[in-house]
Please model this.
Amino acid sequence: MVAGTTFVVSIAAFYSYQVVRELILDNLKKNALLEMQRGADNIDQWLASKKIEAYTSANSPTFRTMDWSMVRPFLKSKELRSPDFFFFAMINPDGSYYPG
Model:
């Protein structure tokens, strides 16, 4: 009788463990996916803001002159003020460029 009860309790404990383990793993997977999606959203927002900033700079009256002697100081000041940008350059339609 004791052996039978021990066997039944052991089987019940094993299956309870399996159920709880699966629930915990599912919860961890959902949390990891949610965290990844939040990170991706943050990166998307950051990239969008940098794209707007680059577009605004490229369409400024100073930059639109395409005169390197005027554009270079503008790019240098932009580079110093914006730690998110590593490098600025002015690139002509023919592929030639002036590094910032």
Residues 2-58 form the longest helix (57 residues). The helical segments are 2-58, 61-64, 68-81. The two ends are 86 Å apart (CA to CA). Strands lie at 89-91, 97-99.
